[in-house]
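Fig. S4 source data, part A: sequence.
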Amino acid sequence: MLFTLKVVHIIVCIALITGVLLQSGKSAGLGAIEGGASSVFGDEGRQLDQILSKVTTVAAILFMILSLTIAYLQ
């Protein structure tokens, strides 16, 4: 069980790192990565930012829960 928790913990860590790195700064937005394509696609850049924000929040909560659980079980 501890091995499974550690594997899930690594997956959550990768998701958390990816979510943080893909989020845009306050001034740039996802349009900076797309090369200005946000003007063509409309609000998709903002929707992706919102999705990334939610994914990062969930991954951070799971990371904390898994960290405490693994520490308690060891």
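Fig. S4 source data, part B ends here. The chain has a mean pLDDT of 83.
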